[in-house]
Amino acid sequence: MMTPDDLSYLYSLTNEYRSIRYDLRNMQALARALGNPQNSFKSVLIAGTNGKGSVASFLSAMMPDAGLYTSPHLVRLNERIRIGKDEIPDEDLTRVFQQVRRAADAAPDLLYAPTYFEIVTAMAFCYFRDRVKFAVLEVGLGGRLDATNIVSQEVSVITSIGLDHQQFLGSTIEEIAREKAGIIKDTEPVVVGSQADLPPVRARAGVRMIHTHNLERTVRSSGDGYFEFDVQTPVRKYHGLKPRLAGRHQIDNAIVAIRAAECLNLDAMRIEEGINNAEWPGRLERVQGTPVFILDGAHNIQAAETLAAFLREFHPNGVWMIFGAMADKQVEDMIAILGPHVRRMILTKAQSPRAKDPVEMQPLVPGSRVEPSVTAAIAHVRAHAPVGTAVVICGSLYLIGEARAVLQ
What we know:
- This protein is of the alpha/beta class.
- The chain has helices at residues 4-12, 24-33, 52-62, 90-106, 116-128, 166-169, 173-181, 199-205, 249-263, 268-277, 301-314, 331-338, 358-361, 374-384, 397-407, and strands spanning 42-47, 67-69, 81-83, 86-87, 134-138, 155-160, 190-195, 209-211, 217-223, 226-232, 237-241, 285-287, 292-295, 319-323, 342-347, 369-370, 390-394.
- It folds into 2 domains: 4-277, Mur-like, catalytic domain (UDP-N-acetylmuramoyl-L-alanine:D-glutamate ligase); 285-407, Mur ligase, C-terminal domain (Protein-Tyrosine Phosphatase, Chain A, Alpha-Beta Complex).
- It is built from 15 helices and 17 strands.
- It has an 8-stranded mixed β-sheet, with helices on both faces.
- Helix 3 crosses helix 9 and helix 11 runs parallel beside helix 12 (331-338).
């Protein structure tokens, strides 16, 4: 198992949000020192502001023998590196960490000490080598300069494009789209969601672009925010698909995953099983009890709008909300979007140096309450929320990870 010193070293590194020296040459040099493990398996590479983790989970459920690399983790680093549902075991996590650290120390042509995300990505590639023939890879940040982008993927996917990480990706949707489109290589099909059909993506993908928003579909509510749907693609018609992921927006994510799977020539049975069985914690995840908690990792404007649409449809009388965000997020805009659907707001913070002080947020929400931690916030709502109230926890995936640990 990784020692406390190993973890301290890893977490002390410049992470995927703070790095200002992105350059794929560094990741390529690290991979060369490891024998280019990313060339030992085929892959699909998934970028997007929101929805990329959900699409990755659908594809992984269709291919349970494939590797799965996602970020961030909610509770344990092991969550990021999986084969199907199985997280990398502690002993293998330690082994690949030590392997990558030795390579980083010995590599002659690194431009700078590898970032946290470069090291973890290299660890995933090393773990997948000799274990899988295929891997589903989620881009960490942007696309063009992301550490995952050293692969030559079979399919590119861009789920959605919205304003997030502007300090790294650009201040406009067009600039961010250009960064996301940077994952696109020369020959592979490019599957895009409805909110990713933008000029920079179209220009880069050309005739290889596969749209999903125009496919004929029939949607039926199953209650509590879940849906059943039929969809006709150019390949076949699917009947009675029932995702376990809540929210109307997951239909769009499922259809993106279906079209990507069709590009990989997966058969209908595997595709249907994947859509019906995929799980993705922390995304409109219900935790039953008194009260019922709904955990959602909404951490940017686009995701807040999606959550607001869900609350408008399924909780029209309003919810109690525990909200905490990172300081670099558009907190004021997110609160403005969510506020109309909230009867009582409890502001708190994740145990991260990047978390925004809830006292600073309180003037944005008259009548709100501040609690110093998610544990204290959960205790407060358990003691005071009226019977029948739904409690939404959102604003940060870090916050969701802490909440899951408390609730489970």
